[in-house]
Write a structure and sequence with these properties.
By secondary structure, the protein is α/β, with parallel strands linked by helices. Helices cover 43% and strands 11% of the residues. α13 (392-407) links the parallel β6 (385-390) and β7. The protein is globular and about 80 Å long. Residues 166-337 form the Poly-beta-hydroxybutyrate polymerase N-terminal domain.
Length: 656
């Protein structure tokens, strides 16, 4: 998410750095000294020794005091870095051996049997293996030829190029410097070779293949030359310019992160003192008008003289804080909705502690969403609302719609909008890797050790792994190798402000949704009723994002096909967050529209129209159709529900 600042150093120095001559190595001494004895006669006739061309002792005489001081400074910094790294390593090993029960057990990711199965299949197809190896060899021969040509002629075409959007190679040195360009292309050839073999394996269970492919990618990403000081031109340049201070600062950052995690690396992605919730973020004016043990209900102040008669109730995910929908003024969805004339209510979920460990998915529907419906009805006098569910909040909303339908109360929700929400988990993406039997047992063990809740750090680490180059390795390079302090960035601040998860709720959700896909199959029993999505007839607007790695759009589309009423599916550009939170004023990205809902998402895309900019305007117009007439604006706290406190309330301020 965060974009690193480009180095302010002179880029052209990298060529000098990379091609600096090393002192000649002294010849090894012969193990038989008698064989090399020289007689006085031979010594007299021995030709005069020629100076070593790689090292000129007189060059030290040309160093001025500033040069000597700089060398001394760098030597001291490098020595200090070496000593600190040794201490960090010993401390980390000691804490690892202590085996804290609340830390993840690496045994849960033991994939030796899966790797063995996949690679057995790969090597058992000698033709495919030989073709892959031949392709790799051709690539290296072409790379050697092109690199030689570039040294001689100054230019050549690349043999292999990074994927578009791969930010690891943004530095100009990776393309302008022939040595670093060759290092980059060599890595990419190996990456494509390994990933191609795993991706193309046949005769393996798809779940096993997906797991091995994911873990192989994690290893390949970790071995990128960008992640090592001696093969990253930006780090080499920074080391020369700062006289090694970047390495000592980086080790200090690493020590601080290890201390913050109690021996477990708590990678800092942003300045957590850079924002204050309620002032810089979540600052849209409003009041908390209802509170129980699992949520607060916020009613936002109107920004128009009249509002639509039917109120809008938003159910964000409880896996994160709600203020992703109310960031700064320029990209706040709730503020924009208020400006469009909607009467906006929003659920702010509690950050649960061990006392709520036994709360269930049904509790979050009954005591959360349904109680919020009752509160909005009491405050406005309206019998129904337009409801919005984001991510896991959308899965809950879909389940609630089916439950209301089964109870004969479907008219309590007039329309439903889903942001990046899955109701069919058959194609749920890489998160399926974290719900196999081993991980399921490990998550249960962790929650037991943590008092019945899953800590926010575990959730954050899981999601970061899905985009490790952007959310892990870029910060390893910036924080630890370049020695920089993370900058204040609102989206990363929100991403780091994680919430805990109640044990009973979380395990039930993982098992019934991700592992067994029971909502889509119509197999969930709740309150004596079977939840069937095809019975749901209310109008639905379903948003998905093209690059969403948490709720992949093919998965969302499968869910859209499960409902029994009219469904408008819309695909936005970007990913799980930026694809949803895309203020029209930003003029960013694009979206695709197609009012039909054919059998497959491929057919939908083929007939869809691409429209520049945000999709919010189209959604607003759809909402207008289901929102009734204009009525005088409702002021928070002046209806039947009185103000408890100012927005954003108290629950959102609780840190994990």
């Amino acid at each position: 998410m965060a974009e690193e600042k480009k180095s302010t150093g002179t880029r052209k120095k990298s060529a000098k750095i990379a091609t600096a001559r090393k002192p000649a190595r002294p010849a090894a001494k012969d193990q038989n000294p008698e064989a090399k004895k020289v007689t006085p006669e031979a010594e007299a006739t021995k030709p005069a020794a020629t100076p070593n061309p790689g090292f000129d002792p007189s060059s030290f005489n040309a160093l001025n005091p500033a040069d000597i001081e700089a060398l001394d400074h760098m030597s001291r910094n490098l020595m200090q870095a070496a000593l600190k790294s040794q201490k960090l390593m010993s401390d980390s090993m000691r804490k690892a051996l202590e085996g804290k029960v609340e830390f993840p057990d690496t045994g849960a990711i033991n994939s030796t049997p899966e790797f063995g199965e996949v690679w057995t299949k790969i090597v058992s197809d000698p033709e495919k293996m030989m073709n892959a190896q031949a392709g790799l060899l051709r690539g290296y021969l072409d790379l050697w030829t092109n690199t030689t040509k570039r040294f001689l002629e100054g230019k050549s075409d690349p043999v292999v190029s990074p994927e578009p959007g791969d930010k690891r190679w943004r530095s100009e040195d990776w393309s302008e410097n022939p040595i670093f360009d060759a290092i980059k292309q060599s890595y990419l050839l190996n990456q494509n070779f390994l990933m191609g073999l795993v991706h193309g394996v046949e005769g393996v269970d798809p779940a096993v293949q997906r797991k091995v492919e994911f873990l192989t990618k994690q290893m390949v990403d970790a071995m990128a030359p960008t992640n090592f000081a001696l093969t990253n031109p930006d780090v080499i340049r920074e080391t020369m310019q700062s006289k090694g201070e970047n390495l000592t600062k980086g080790l200090a950052n690493l020590a601080s992160d290890l201390e913050a995690g109690g021996g477990r690396l708590a990678l800092t992605q942003t300045d957590m003192e850079g924002f204050k919730v309620g002032q810089d973020l979540a600052a849209t004016e409003g009041k908390v008008v209802f509170r129980n043990e699992i949520f607060e209900l916020i009613h936002y102040a109107p920004l128009t003289e009249t509002v639509k008669q039917r109120p809008l109730l938003i159910a964000p995910p409880w896996i994160n804080k709600f203020y992703i929908m109310d960031m700064r003024e320029k990209n706040s969805m709730v503020r924009w909705l208020s400006q469009q004339g909607f009467s906006v209510y929003l659920i702010s979920w509690v950050n649960p502690g061990p006392e709520l460990k036994d709360k269930t998915f049904q509790d979050y529907i009954e005591d959360g969403l349904f109680v919020a419906l009752d509160a909005v009805k009491e405050d406005t006098g309206e019998d129904s609302v337009n409801a919005v569910g984001y991510c896991i909040g959308g899965t809950m909303l879909a389940s609630a719609l089916a439950l209301l339908e089964a109870r004969g109360e479907a008219d309590r929700i007039a329309s439903a909008t889903f942001f990046a929400a899955q109701t069919d988990f058959e194609l749920a993406g890489d998160l399926l890797l974290f719900v196999d039997d081993a991980w399921f047992k490990e998550i249960n063990r962790l929650m037991e050790a943590q008092g019945g809740v899953l800590d926010g750090r575990t959730m954050s680490d899981t999601f970061n792994l899905l985009r490790s180059n952007d959310l892990v390795w870029s910060f390893v390079v910036s924080n630890y190798l370049l020695g920089r302090q993370p900058q204040a960035f609102d989206l990363l601040y929100w991403n780091a402000d994680q919430t805990r998860m109640p044990q009973t709720l979380h395990l039930w959700y993982l098992d019934n949704m991700y592992r067994k896909n029971r909502l889509s199959k119509g197999e969930i029993e709740m309150g004596g009723h079977t939840l069937r999505l095809d019975d749901v007839k209310v109008p639905i607007f379903m948003q998905a994002s093209r690059d969403d790695h948490i709720a992949p759009y093919p998965s969302v589309y499968r869910g859209a096909k499960r409902f029994g009423g009219p469904v408008r599916f819309m695909l936005a550009g970007s990913g799980h967050i930026a694809g949803v939170i895309n203020h029209p004023g930003a003029n960013k990205y694009q979206h695709w529209v197609n009012k039909d809902l054919p059998d497959t998402v491929e057919e939908w895309l083929e007939a869809a129209e691409e429209v520049p900019g945000s999709w919010w305007l189209e959604w607003r117009d759809w909402l207008y159709e289901h929102s009734g007439k204009d009525v005088p604006a409702r002021v928070p706290g002046e209806g039947k529900l009185k103000a408890i406190c100012d927005a954003p309330g108290e629950y959102v301020l609780v840190r994990s």
